[in-house]
Design brief:
It is a single chain. The chain is α+β, with helices and mostly antiparallel strands. The chain has a domain of 49 residues. 19% of the residues lie in helices and 25% in strands. It is built from three helices and four strands, in the order ααββββα. It has a four-stranded antiparallel beta sheet, covered by helices on one side. The longest helix has 7 residues.
Length: 79
């Protein structure tokens, strides 16, 4: 007799995937939180709501939460 529920038998999914996938979930609000977008890490700077990282050429880049949602994001590097 199998007492395992359907949810228990599914493989674990990344947090962002469970939240609707790459950016559909709510961005973290804790200062110094890290998210990934297009292979780059972005850190939430203080309470300004600005995500700071670098572009493909290593230049500093600041994004708003809305810009990060449009680009897509995840809590893990795999995106």
């Amino acid at each position: 007799m199998n007492t395992m529920t359907e949810a228990e038998s599914e493989p674990a999914k990344p947090v962002a995937a469970r939240a609707g996938g790459g950016g559909a979930g709510t961005l973290p609000t804790t200062p110094c939180s890290v998210v990934w977008s297009k292979g780059h890490a972005y850190v939430l700077e203080g309470s300004h709501g600005r995500w700071v990282g670098v572009d493909d050429r290593g230049r500093p880049q600041a994004l708003s939460g809305d810009e990060l949602r449009r680009r897509g994001w995840s809590r893990t590097r795999a995106n």
